[in-house]
Amino acid sequence: MPPDILTVIMRWLHLTSMATLLGGILYWRLVLAPASEALSPDTRDALGDKAATLFSPIVFASIAGLLVSGVFKYLTSPGHQPVYHMIFGIKMLLALHVFAVAILIARPGNPRRTRMLTGTVISGLLIVFLSAWLRHIF
Q1: How far is Cα 126 from Cα 130, in angstroms, rounded to an integer?
Q2: Phi/psi zone of residue 109: left (φ > 0), alpha (ψ -120 to 50 degrees), beta?
Q3: 63 vs 102: CA distance, rounded Å
Q4: How close are the terminal C-alpha atoms of the chain, in Å?
Q5: ∠ CA 82-21-55, rounded to 5°
Q6: Could you say which DSSP state residue 3 is in?
Q7: Above pLDDT 90, what percent of the chain?
Q8: Does the CA dihedral 103-91-20-115 come out positive or negative?
């Protein structure tokens, strides 16, 4: 039986939103932040604020895509075991962490941005791991 086109679109939306958000955070933490260390503090702050301003609409669009597609997926696949819901709950708590911190790092004038990015990278990669686990075992 061919997959429902709406299901395929929602899966695509979920994967592209996740890749965009996590990819942007990974790039910022692993490339942009270390590269900006060579700049003067004022220039580094200006670069970080400009990057935050440009990243902000991407963050909100990615979060919206993840919420819409995630709710769709959750509502269209009922009947899971309790262990699935436990792992899913952990995944949702980590996702809330990523969403909240992504919004904060995308605001200009954040002096703790690099530290916040580190925790968000860890949470984001854990979400990907838990998603793969849920997909594999259920």
Answers
A1: 6
A2: left
A3: 9
A4: 20
A5: 145
A6: P
A7: 87
A8: positive
